[in-house]
Amino acid sequence: MNWKVLGSSAFIWAGSIVTSPNVMSVPIVTLASEYDADIRLADYWMSEKLDGIRAFWNGYALLTRSGKPIHAPTWFTEPLPEFPLDGELWIARNAFNDVQKTVLDNEPDDAAWRDLFFMVFDTPHVPSVFPERLAKLEQWHKESPVKHVKVVSHRSIASESALFDYLESVVDQGGEGIMLRKLDTRYRVGRSDDLIKVKRHQSQEVTVIGYKAGKGRLDGLLGSLWVESDDGLRFYVGSGFSDEQRRSPPVLGSKITIHHNGVTHNGIPRFARFAHIRRPE
Question: Where in the numbering of this chain does the ATP-dependent DNA ligase family profile domain appear (predicted)?
């Protein structure tokens, strides 16, 4: 990893000098791929997938996964180290909407931020494999404990049945799923099999491009959203909405997250249902 902090206004990222976090236009973190039964589980450790907002501390500023600034209170960022941290801003299970509202506001709500934890799981500045990066994180946190920062615990995977037993346990307690991190690679930016997500269902972001009116009990309300995926597929999403959401549906052009269970032979998500509106990060 080619990383060097130059001061309060510039740093080197992958060989390029960046003078402000606002100029980043590509993902600055490792992104997760979907689980494939062909992977060798002995090459990975697992941890709970936290349903929050991905956050990257670059040594002086807190950023979203795409490099946009997060407006956190000074007391939240002041105790963070001079080296980078990769993690998730999180409150608790089933609290994503509260996290999103707090983290993506331009004016930080001090009281709301008091409920947030920075759950860190990696540090790109250590030019080594994941267990050694995690050990460095744990050493730093032990020597310089911060109340609102926690290091995410990881465990080895004995077998695929153990993996799915853990998944069922997490989901039954209100969790979202499991993350797998590859042990023998250095930190890499972008999507690869270094980081894999395992869920009961799959998630996908789509864009709202139209509406279909409801019928019967839903007369006068939203029946379905007409949406488009990033690869141009168009389909309806008609379940998962509350009556209030059907009265006031997501606006045209907005991004929403849907859950589904696999895809058809045409690539259309099976049993697609609305999860939540996704504000830009």
Answer: 115-231
Tokens found for residue 220: 């006068």
Q: Where are the alpha helices (DSSP H) in 173-278?
A: 243-247
User: Nearest CA to 188 among 137, 131, 130?
Assistant: 130
**Is 197 an annotated catalytic residue?**
no
Give me the residue label for tokens 């890499």: 188
Chain segment 18-51, per-residue pLDDT in tens: 334 343 445 578 889 888 777 899 999 999 999 9
Q: How far apart are CA 51 and CA 173, in angstroms?
A: 13
Q: How far is CA 24 from the centre of its chain?
A: 18
CA end-to-end distance (rounded Å), the chain: 24
202-278 homologous superfamily: Nucleic acid-binding proteins (2.40.50.140)
Q: Can you tell me which residue has the tokens 């049993």? A: 271
One of 49, 68, 199, 212 is an active-site residue; which one?
A: 49
Q: Where are the domains of the chain?
A: 25-198, 202-278
* Residue 61: Cβ within 10 Å count: 19
CATH no. for 25-198: 3.30.470.30
What pLDDT was estimated at residue 27?
55
